[in-house]
Each structure stands twice: as structure tokens, then as C-alpha cells.
Amino acid sequence: MKPDDDTCWAAVRDRDRAFDGRFFYGVLSTGVYCRPSCASRTPLRRNLRFYAVAADAERDGLRPCKRCKPLARTADEATIRTVRELCRYIQQHSDQNPGLEQLSRRAHLSPSHLQRRFKAVLGVSPKDFVESCRLDALKRKLRDGRSVAAATYDAGFGSSSRVYERAAHRLGMTPRQYRAGGRGVDISWALSETPLGLLMIGASDRGLCFVQFGASESELRGQLQAEFPQAAITPMPANARDQFAQWMQALSRHLSGRQVALDLPLDLRGTAFQMKVWNYLLKIPYGALRSYSEVAQAIGAPRAVRAVASACAANRVGLVVPCHRVIRGDGGLGGYRWGLERKRSLIDLERSVRTAGA
């Protein structure tokens, strides 16, 4: 799992080899990304950005450092060079939505070989990388003031309502709202005491986007605001009281073992890789466990174990997206952003309910 930014900065400053493979850092002033132990001159903190996987750094237009060679452990030099050339091509032609066949011809590889090599280097498929680049292009065009129709079409999403909705899903809001800087996105919240502590839920008109535990209302409100800094955040309105009550009741029953399935509307927002991990987590059965490695294998990125752990840690919708069902390969609990005691309690509860129903 990627450490927090302060820990990452300390690792970069100390050139700590123990953190190699756990994250990459990008130097915005030079346009490169490195491993934490890179022997290059330590950059200024304000010029750094930290990444869980190399694909995110590549998508931001950064190139691997020639000194520390951050990708050297994942593939041979020829494969790395091929994948990087394809990344540049995709970034320049994302509006044309290049497919696997086209990319494989350009790389002089079969589609299956390209798919495997691309994932081995970056942790995501060519299709996911193309989609992320198109989304980035859409964001840039909207921020530049292009009309929604023009920006959506020019970014390669087309002009049909169906494609417009897909772009909206990936943005976490409609393109029009994104163009306005996120203003106009309303998130309502409610609190409830549960067997595992104070729980806050937050929802947009699309569904739940925030389900988290905390010590107090002020702490949880601060977390919600930090997750969605430009949204209009308000307490649960009176006309939504019944809906919020139903969601809270479902979560409370789930936490007491009286309701196994949670079929609740979701508004998930994340990178292509995070979305792939979270969508897989939704498929893990109640009471079952998977290792971070098994999740990485299941999503087709077997080398991206640490990135999977990082995606689990970035989950904003606890319980419903059951990241607590993912543990270490040796049986250890791993991490959990709401505390290992809660993770242990959830695993024990689900195991006992499943055993009783067997």
C-alpha cells in the first residue's frame, strides 16, 4: 500500500531503499519519476507528486528516470521501451480511441503478448490506459473553457447521450459540473452509532460516495470535505430522510450480522486501476477472504500487489465496497484505514454468520 505523503517525502529525503516498489515519486520540475532510493539530487518538496503505480505517473506525462530506472524490476529494457513508446502514442492519439489490435500492430506484437507486457510494466491494460488518457483530455478541455459538447467529442467520447453518461460516470459528475470546477455537485450526509462506532454516510444524486467510521461528527465532516473539496456538502435534507434511514438501517443490520447482502446505489470515483480493484471487491462473497496477490491476479495485473493494497486503502465507501475482505498472503490482516480492530471484527463477524448458516 502506498504510504501517506509525509512518509513518502521522508523516504525520498532519506533515499530509503526499503520503500522501493511501494511507491514512485514524480518531479514536476524535471518531468521524470523515480524510485524512492534514487541517487539524484533531492528535489524540493513542492515539486513532488507521489504515485502508487507507474501508470499514473506515465499518464501525467512523466518519464522514468534514467539514473534509478524505476521500471527495471518489472520488465526488461526492450519491453519497457516498447510500452513507453506506446504510452506516448496513446497520449497523442487518445481522441482516436486506439484499440488493442492497432496498438499491437504498432508494437509488432500479438494482442495477447502486448496485453501481458503492458500490464507487467504499468499494472493496467492498454484499454484502461487509453480510457484514462481520454478522461484526462476531457478534463483539460473542460478546464480550458471548451463547451461540453465540443470537449466531449474532441476527447474521443463522441456525442451520443450514452457516451456522455459514460464520461460522467468516470468523472464522478457530469462534464458540465466538472467544467464549473465541481460546483453544483451536492453531497448530503447523515450520522449513526453502530456496533463498530460512529458511522457517516454521504451521498450524491447518483448514490453513496462516502461511508466511513470516525471518532466524532467534526472529524467525519472534515474527512468528507477533504474528499470532496468543491462539492456543496450539507446535512441530510428532510425530503431524503426516509432514503437515508433505509441506507443506515441496511448498514446497521449488516454490522450486526442480520443482513448479508448490501445492494445499495454507489457513486464511486477513482483512477482506472482503483475502479478495477473496487469493482472486483464488490464480487467477493460475504465471509470470504482474498489476498492482495489474489486480487492482483484476478484483475490481470499480477505484479501490482502493492498498487492493489493502495487502492484498498483509498476506498471511500467502507463496508459496501468490502476492502476488509482483502488480507495479506501470509494470513496477516494487512492494513485498514479505519483500524485493524474494526477489520478483525468484521472478518470475525462474517465468518461466524457464514458458519452458522452453513
From TrEMBL:
What SMART domains does the entry give? Answer: HTH_ARAC
What is a single Pfam family found in this protein's UniProt entry? Ada_Zn_binding
Q: Where is the HTH araC/xylS-type domain?
A: 84-181
Q: Which CDD domains match?
A: ATase
- What's the Enzyme Commission number for this chain? 2.1.1.63
Q: Which residues bind Zn(2+)?
A: 34, 38, 65, 68
Entry keyword set: Activator, DNA damage, DNA repair, Metal-binding, Methyltransferase, Transcription, Transcription regulation, Transferase, Zinc
Q: Which reaction does it catalyse?
A: a 4-O-methyl-thymidine in DNA + L-cysteinyl-[protein] = a thymidine in DNA + S-methyl-L-cysteinyl-[protein]; a 6-O-methyl-2'-deoxyguanosine in DNA + L-cysteinyl-[protein] = S-methyl-L-cysteinyl-[protein] + a 2'-deoxyguanosine in DNA
Which example biological process does GO assign this protein? methylation
Q: Which GO molecular function terms does the record list? A: DNA-binding transcription factor activity; methylated-DNA-[protein]-cysteine S-methyltransferase activity; sequence-specific DNA binding; zinc ion binding
Q: Which cofactor does it need?
A: Zn(2+)
- The UniProt entry annotates the active site at 34, 323
- Cofactor binding mode and count: Binds 1 zinc ion per subunit.
Q: Does the keyword DNA damage apply?
A: yes
EC class of this enzyme? transferase
Q: Which InterPro entries match?
A: Ada-like_dom_sf (IPR035451), Ada_DNA_repair_Zn-bd (IPR004026), Bifunct_regulatory_prot_Ada (IPR016221), Homeodomain-like_sf (IPR009057), HTH_AraC (IPR018060), MethylDNA_cys_MeTrfase_AS (IPR001497), MethylDNA_cys_MeTrfase_DNA-bd (IPR014048), MethylDNA_cys_MeTrfase_DNAb (IPR036217)
Q: Which family does it belong to?
A: Belongs to the MGMT family.
**NCBIfam families registered for this protein in UniProt:** ogt, PRK15435.1
Supply the name of the protein: methylated-DNA--[protein]-cysteine S-methyltransferase
Q: What is the originating organism of this protein?
A: Sinimarinibacterium flocculans
